[in-house]
Specification:
Layout lengths: L4 H20 L5 H12 L3 E6 L6 H8 L17 E6 L8 E6 L2 H9 L2 H10 L6 H18 L3 H4 L3 E4 L4 H8 L18 E8 L8 E5 L8 H13 L2 E7 L6 H11 L5 E7 L7 H19 L6 E4 L2 H8 L3 H10 L2 H11 L6 H9 L1 H14 L1 H38 L4 H67 L11 E5 L1 H41 L26 E5 L16 H68 L6 H39 L1
Parallel strand pairs: 1-6, 1-7, 2-5, 7-8, 8-9
Antiparallel strand pairs: 2-6, 3-4, 3-5, 10-11
Helix pairs in contact: 1-2, 1-17, 1-21, 2-17, 3-12, 4-6, 5-20, 11-14, 12-15, 14-15, 16-17, 17-18, 17-20, 17-21, 18-19, 18-20, 19-20
């Protein structure tokens, strides 16, 4: 089954168009087109497969890619690794893998959070072992050191590259392994692997795709949870894998609600493992209805695609060994046939076809293809279309002006003296130079205004996050006071407080959404004003309308970072009168506990705030940069016109100066100008064809 054939046509159209422009518009115009080529070559549909641990994400991906046991499907959750499967990416190896390891700085952040936090903890709570806050990561690092021995330190910050790909290789870098033996090949490097990049070619994918396998969203190893969230921020399409046994938990709902806030992205729900249900012919439709109802209640503004199936069925259908044959016979029941009849209206004659149809994998691929062709994929590619349109419009404008100038020079050749001809060309260049100066001034002013606005937006957003966190901390004091109360015998009822961060997540999400919308509106206002002013200056000075350059389809029209979803809870110990030996002390120090509670929680949450601000900044800068690049096409347009005049002036000056002495020079100059006019006409025809092709693509997308 082909995935995204229409998108392939659009990519081929753009690729061919840019190549045709590159060859047909002359060497002097290629620099501008190279940027479009780089943008097109780096484009890929970004799909993230997410869900809770044990939902079957890796099994789903193995079946989806027609690979048996390629990705480890039974991995200890806190050693899972974000794995980017790069399919048909231009410039990548045809097959292979690259595994990047944690650096010393990464480990320092994992183990200590920040040195400030460690110092505060040790100062406020003498005798407190900071491993309580980092015990999981400490255990991970210690285990990595046992596994890797003397090689441990030399590997940090490095990467391993391979020109082949197999299951053993993947297990070595992303699987936990079964024991502590440093010589164990399985999972040998997994504990220090930060991210895995896998390269492959798949003909059924008609476009470049980055398919990301993420650790579970309920993964207790929060550092990798953060990497998962950053992967989600960069993805365009989400396939949320739910387990049929426990579909749509509170964690699932929270994540889906957050993903759905990013309106430019799309969410598909795959309910996996239906083969493990009793009487799934009747159970699955009820399950789908229940999930749809709950999603509609939680996120009423979004319509989700929900598909049920079994990656295990697909795996069994594609295997040819005796074990798989026996399993197929057990799966191919009357219940399976009833399910297929009820959901698809027909039952295939072949056993393997029945299992493949029930697996839902083809339905997922069909839905994914539709999303890419007519939904998020088309919208993602539209930015490149708009950038190409802007560049074509700028080149067309410059060449039309040059054509008019050449035609004018040919007319004046018979009427004016050589001095007047040179003066006319000099005046044209001076006029264009004046326009260029005005445009540059407007662009410089816009960049300055945008810089100040972004600085203010970032500062304001950081202050808003601080306020949200402080308000959350104030609310938690009631929880703290209840924990400090004794049970009547002078003994504290608990030794630590478990802080649920759900309320904080909602506050952070709301602040991010509100701040981003305001900042984006301010960015768009400055960009729109600058574009209108630049166009008005050009049209007033050159007496010709400027068209085809817009601010449509800039990146991040809507954006919400999943980083606010990262940490689920915190454990904060209480302070006893003389340290942490609770079995020796019957009372706790309320004042010091409150002070430590506030300080430690503030220090723990500050890195989350800083990361959210960083993501906020990156998204705003990306939108600003893209918009300014469109506006700079006006600058390039005027620059091109000036460069053409200057080249012609240098080329024709000798002939013009010789007109009064050698009458044959007039004929030679006329022929040269006529040839130049023919070149310009051919180039304008090439640009016109390209503009027409872009318009046809617009119509196909609109349909």
């Amino acid at each position: 089954m082909e995935i995204a054939p229409q998108q392939r046509q659009d990519l081929d159209l753009l690729d061919g168009m840019i190549a045709h422009l590159y060859e047909g518009l002359g060497r002097e115009n290629r620099q501008n087109l190279m940027l479009l080529r780089q943008e097109l070559d780096s484009w890929a549909a970004r799909i993230a497969v997410i869900g809770q641990v044990k939902a079957g994400k890796s099994t789903f991906l193995n079946a989806f890619l027609h690979e048996r046991d390629f990705l480890p499907s039974d991995v200890n959750p806190w050693t899972s690794v974000v794995t980017n499967i790069r399919i048909n990416i231009k410039g990548d190896p045809r097959i292979g893998a690259r595994f990047d390891f944690f650096s010393e700085a990464d480990w320092d952040e994992i183990i200590n959070g920040t040195s400030h936090l460690r110092e505060l903890t040790e100062k406020l709570i003498p005798g407190f072992d900071t491993a309580v806050l980092r015990r999981q990561a400490e255990a991970m690092r210690a285990r990595a050191q046992r596994r890797l021995g003397k090689h441990y330190h030399s590997l940090l910050g490095q990467s391993h590259d391979y020109e082949f790909l197999n299951s053993d290789l993947m297990q070595r870098y992303v699987c936990a392994g079964q024991d502590e033996d440093a010589a164990d090949a399985q999972g040998r490097y997994a504990l220090i692997t930060k991210v895995a990049n896998v390269f492959m070619r798949r003909p059924e994918f008609k476009i470049p795709v980055i398919l990301t396998d993420t650790p579970g969203v309920n993964d207790p190893f929060l550092v990798r949870d953060e990497f998962t969230c950053r992967s989600l921020d960069q993805s365009d399409i989400f396939i949320v894998v739910l387990s049929a046994h426990q579909a749509l938990t509170r964690v699932d709902l929270a994540l889906i609600r957050l993903l759905a806030q990013q309106r430019t992205k799309e969410v598909m729900i795959f309910i996996n493992r239906i083969d493990e249900l009793d009487d799934y012919a009747s159970a699955v439709p009820k399950l789908i209805d229940d999930v749809a109802t709950r999603l509609c209640a939680a996120v009423p503004e979004i319509k989700f695609r929900i598909i049920a199936g079994s990656a295990f069925m697909a795996d069994m259908a594609k295997r040819s060994d005796a074990e798989a044959a026996a399993m197929r016979a057990r799966l191919d029941t009357d219940d399976l046939r009833a399910y297929l009849q009820n959901t698809n209206g027909h039952v295939p004659c072949d056993e393997i076809d029945r299992l493949l149809l029930a697996s839902g994998l083809d339905a997922v691929k069909c839905a994914l293809s539709d999303i890419i062709d007519s939904g998020i994929g088309a919208r993602g590619l539209s930015q490149i279309f708009e950038d190409t349109r802007a560049e074509i419009s700028a080149l067309s404008y410059a060449m039309k002006r040059e054509r008019e100038s050449v035609q004018g020079e040919m007319t004046h050749l018979m009427e004016l003296s050589p001095e007047a001809l040179l003066e006319n060309m000099g005046a044209e260049i001076a006029q264009l130079t004046e326009v260029e100066a005005m445009i540059s001034q407007l662009v410089d002013g816009a960049e300055g205004a945008l810089g100040q606005m972004l600085e203010q937006a970032w500062s304001t957003f950081e202050a808003q996050l601080s306020h949200v966190i402080q308000r959350f901390l104030d609310d938690q004091y009631r929880v703290l006071d209840a924990a400090i109360l004794s049970d009547g015998n002078g003994r504290p009822p608990v030794s630590e407080i478990r802080v649920d961060l759900g309320q904080l997540h909602q506050g952070l999400e709301q602040s991010f959404s509100t701040a981003f919308a305001k900042s984006r509106a301010d960015i768009d206002r400055i960009l729109d004003q600058t574009l209108r002013f630049c166009v008005a200056r050009i049209e007033a000075a050159l007496q010709e309308q400027v068209t085809g350059i817009s601010l449509e389809d800039l990146p991040h029209a809507h954006f919400t970072s999943t980083l606010s979803f990262s940490k689920k809870e915190l454990l904060v110990p209480l302070v006893s009168e003389k340290g942490w030996a609770f079995w020796r002390q019957s009372t706790i120090n309320a004042e010091k506990s409150r002070e430590a509670f506030h300080t430690i929680l503030s220090a723990e949450l500050r890195p989350v705030m800083q990361k959210l601000v960083r993501v906020f900044n990156e998204a705003q800068v990306a939108r600003t940069t893209s918009g300014m690049d469109r506006i700079r096409s006006l600058c390039r347009m005027v620059d091109t016109a000036i460069a053409e005049r200057q080249r012609r002036l240098r080329r024709d000056r000798r002939h013009i100066e010789a007109l009064g002495k050698d009458h044959t020079q007039k004929a030679l100059l006329h022929d040269r100008l006529h040839s130049q006019l023919e070149v310009l006409e051919r180039r304008l025809q090439i640009l016109s064809v390209a503009q027409s092709a872009l318009s046809r693509v617009d119509l196909s997308h609109a349909a």
